[in-house]
């Protein structure tokens, strides 16, 4: 998606060779016009897949997921990073290794917001090692529902997330694929 790539080149900051900062348009301040276009792009790509809900992981996936669900006219569900104290039998939960914080957290989903006949589109801001998306997949599978595909705003193609998800049999559709962040320079796959 060229408009996204231009924005990344203009406003993204390669913090080091592994991490891209996008605080000024996705993670902290949000460029809503860009997010709307991203939502339309994801919706057009997955429109014929009979998506019943869009799932995302709090908090930085919310903006692109919201516009995607608006365009598909289905609910958006935010998978929450909860402290285990509030969890009970009404939640599905799985442990996820955080890429940016180097810790683990519980990703949770209330059983009230998924049914076995749901067909879920997972949307997230970044794909690195695929841990967050794999956690989301596990929660959907716990409910015996289906994952229809995974939409990623920015894929770091030099990290193993895509392969991990494709090996599990899922389609990954990313809007910008980064080849390298070496020497503070952002390079795309194509
Ligand atoms: P994964 O679970 O695929 O290893 O990492 C994806 C998650 O980590 C995303 O939900 C995202 O929030 C965060 N993340 C991974 N890489 C980056 C990055 O380069 N920049 C930012 N801002 N977040 C990242």
Structure commentary:
With 190 residues, this protein is an alpha/beta fold. The chain has one domain (2-188): Rossmann fold (3-Layer(aba) Sandwich), CATH 3.40.50.2020. The chain contains 6 helices and 10 strands, in the order H-E-E-H-H-E-H-E-E-E-E-H-E-H-E-E. The strands form 2 sheets. Strands 5-6-4-3-7-8-9-10 form an 8-stranded mixed β-sheet, with helices on both faces. A two-stranded antiparallel sheet has the order 1-2. Helix 3 packs across helix 4 (62-72). The mean pLDDT is 96. The structure holds guanosine-5'-monophosphate (5GP). The site of guanosine-5'-monophosphate (5GP) has 19 residues, from strand 2, strand 7 and helix 5.
What number of domains? 1
Q: What is the typical, i.e. mean, pLDDT?
A: 96
Strand fraction = 25-35%
CATH uppermost class: Alpha Beta
- For the biggest β-sheet, the strand order reads 5-6-4-3-7-8-9-10
**CATH fold description:** Rossmann fold
The shape is: globular
User: What radius of gyration results from the CA coordinates?
Assistant: 16 Å
Output the helix-strand order.
HEEHHEHEEEEHEHEE
Low-confidence stretches: none
The profile of the biggest β sheet is: 8 strands, mixed
CATH architecture: 3-Layer(aba) Sandwich
- Helicity level: 25-40%
Bound molecules: guanosine-5'-monophosphate
**Distance separating the two termini:** 11 Å
The tally of helices reads 6
- Total beta-strand segments: 10
List keywords for this structure.
190 residues, alpha/beta, Rossmann fold, eight-stranded mixed β-sheet, two-stranded antiparallel ribbon, 32% strand
């Amino acid at each position: 998606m060229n408009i996204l790539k231009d924005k990344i080149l203009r406003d993204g900051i390669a913090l080091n060779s592994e991490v891209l900062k996008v605080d000024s348009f996705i993670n902290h301040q949000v460029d809503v016009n860009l997010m709307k276009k991203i939502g339309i792009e994801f919706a057009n790509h997955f429109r014929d897949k009979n998506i019943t809900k869009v799932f995302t992981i709090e908090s930085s996936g919310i903006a692109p997921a919201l516009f995607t669900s608006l365009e598909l006219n289905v609910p958006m569900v935010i998978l929450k990073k909860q402290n285990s104290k509030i969890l009970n039998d009404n939640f599905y939960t799985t442990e996820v290794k955080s890429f940016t914080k180097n810790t683990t957290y519980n990703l949770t989903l209330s059983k009230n917001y998924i049914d076995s006949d749901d067909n879920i589109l997972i949307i997230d801001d970044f794909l690195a090692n695929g841990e967050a998306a794999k956690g989301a997949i596990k929660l959907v599978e716990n409910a015996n529902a289906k994952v229809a595909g995974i939409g990623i705003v920015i894929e770091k193609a030099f990290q193993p997330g895509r392969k991990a998800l494709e090996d599990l049999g899922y389609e990954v559709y990313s809007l910008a694929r980064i080849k390298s962040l070496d020497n503070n320079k952002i390079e795309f796959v194509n």
